[in-house]
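Task: complex structure prediction.
Instruction: return structure tokens for all chains below.
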Amino acid sequence: MGLFCMPSLGADMEAGKLVEWLKQPGDSIASGDIIAVVETQKGAIEIEAFETGTLDQLLVPIGQTVPVGTPLAAIRGAGEAPVAIPAAPPMPAAPIAAPLMQVSPATPTFGSAVKASPAARKFAEEHGIDLAGVTGSGPEGAIVFVDVETASRAGGMPKPAAPAPAKPAAAGLEGMRAAIGAAMSRSKREIPHYYLGHAADVTTATAWLAQRNADCAPQDRILFSALLLKAVAVSLAGFPEFNGHFGKDGYVAAKSVHLGMAIALRGGGLIAPAIHDADKLSLAEAMTRLHDLVNRVRAGRFRSSEMSDPTATLTSLGERGADWVLPVIYPPQVAIVGAGSPVEEPRVVDGQIVPRTICHLTLGADHRASDGHRGALLLRAIAERLQKPEAL
Amino acid sequence: MTRDEIQAILIEEIGNIAPEADLTALDPEADLREALDMDSISFLNLLIALGHRLGVQVPEKDYPKLATLRLAVAYLAAAH
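Output:
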């Protein structure tokens, strides 16, 4: 007997709204099946089951917003009898616990004695709510998102206008901006970042790709981003201090490389879902998975496991971006690799100045988990792999 | 297929990739990817769609020939 709970889909998520059940009581469930769709600040996310059995009972009706960790449904294992269901926590949630992505503990900020989570702070700020007048229900009486939301409804506080049906994208973007703001504020507040850069010569790689793609239909072409994805993922597998999570017990290296890919959404916003076991994929598989992920993310449908478990992130600026980026780590990860747009630059090769295609690789990493010496080795390992694209 | 029909299909497929863009205001001489903020995956999606709709497979070396709406229509009309 297992409970299927509202998952935490990122360090900044405190609650989600159930919008669709894709399985009904009596349906058999296999691990990995998509059971429900949850609306979050990042869009609609398909929630997968992690066990096998029969869906016994739905515990939350469609349309209800519940805190992370709330049981959504009961799943009965083969041969098990239905058992009693613990009462779902009421909406103003008690401390929210998630195994991997701990919601940021309330952190007092300068000039404020009120303890509140980043999302609660953000919401209060946006809605002109004084946190001093809000009762907290989180750890140590901290104010969490739902408290502020409840206060804004109950207290006659200035309430945001109901989202106009004609502008769903704009309303969603506001929520996403808040989510990005909360995660990045936490990152800059808690993570002692250090940054490194390395100019990778990708002349061979781009020429190799052009040759490989020359006789391919568009759907069979491989983009430079897929090459980067693979080179970064394989390199991370050999540098465990950059691939994992920093939680309340310190740093824990991950066993697999689930590489988060920062994907810009049309009209604004950014999401970095994971490509699972990216180091084990062939280059063609990496391209297929990347293509599929980008299309699904931009269509607003992606899966819970992709959101909840990236072990490190790659932000690639594409063909028409800036030369380089100083990337900000997505907590509780400890590293993010940046790749600038490949550019033609004069380089010295064997004593001669020659034009080469350069991709400026950067690393933002957490000093609690690693030091710059190893970071430099990681960037060099990625650059070397990009020199031998046929081996990827 | 006439040039106008090809242009209509091209604009329809661009609209699928950039649904928020006002394509009636699109300058036929503007750089398509700049004007519509198309990254390499969006552009690849456009080429895949054009392959299905027009039976034209645009090789990578010809990408500059699709730089603007006017150039792209001319290229697709010739290749079709």
